[in-house]
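Q: My labmate handed me this sequence with no annotations at all. I'd like to see what the chain might look like in three dimensions before we decide whether it's worth expressing. Could you predict it?
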Amino acid sequence: MLDARPAPLVQVEDLKMHFPIYSGLFRRHTGDVKAVDGVSFDIMAGQTLGLVGESGCGKSTVGRAILRLYEPTAGRVIIDGEDVAQMQPGPLRKKRPTMQMVFQDPQASLNPRMTLADIVAEPLDEHTDWTRDKKLERVHELMDQVGLNRRFANRFPHEFSGGQRQRIGIARALALKPQFIVCDEPIAALDVSIQAQVVNLLEDLQEKLGLTYLFISHDLSMVRHLAQRVAVMYLGRICELSPSSDLYARPLHPYAEALLSAVNEPDPELAATRNRIILKGDVPSPANPPKGCNFCTRCPKVMDICRQVKPDLAEVEPGRQVACHLYHNNSAAGSTGAPEANERNQQGETQ
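A: Here is what I predict for the chain of 351 residues:
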């Protein structure tokens, strides 16, 4: 029987982004910073995948490599059936309108010498041969969509608040009617009172326009609200990829467990019973990651195999993928893997 499920709009397979290290008098290539080291996931059309992890784990690099703002070292990035990672400059330029990005800092991502109308119309100048009047009509239409007054069209970025600037960035990303948008921490630089407004705007636009998002964020509570699936990154690799509700109810990977234990709980009674997991040690350097699992130097449940063999991201429950020897072949991990995994699962269910 043929598989009737639709193909994902975005498929990322073993994506790697290594930055070379040159040292010495003759600037020899002596190593690489493995910012992204074999990341794989897919996103269905119209859905949101949240990408979370601590600072420096490679989240933003993943987003930029997917859109070819960085040249990937290896891997495949298939967007709507076409491998963006292997495209030549000509075809890639034609593909650009279907994939866009909303940047983290709206102040830094907008040209201070250009008016709002010029900033939003710039993609139209590059990719269309429309008349000036048609472009202005599209700019006004986009301003209406993101909640900006048309009278502001000739103002400069410094005349807007942070939230308004981010709305300009969203309008610019929507100008060419893309299918896929990478949102690189779009609320991180905004006041808390404005963050919810921007997230609600992104949700409304997704519903109206059928957009697909990769939502990169530090804010685990916001990701829970926005994303259907969540990928947890640590030191350039995905350690867990699960449906949002399952991950927040019962994280499987020890790092995901520790990360989610840091999320504030508004209910005082629940907060008093929660077990806060404090990780010891520092994050290893991406230029010299551990031989085995990247998390083995800080993991409270580390086993001997963890220090020797790098676990692959594999499905351990329906729809849930984990890169951890606790859940992979107990024959490989030894008899200690099964009881620990089962005990942790039971603890998660009783909380």
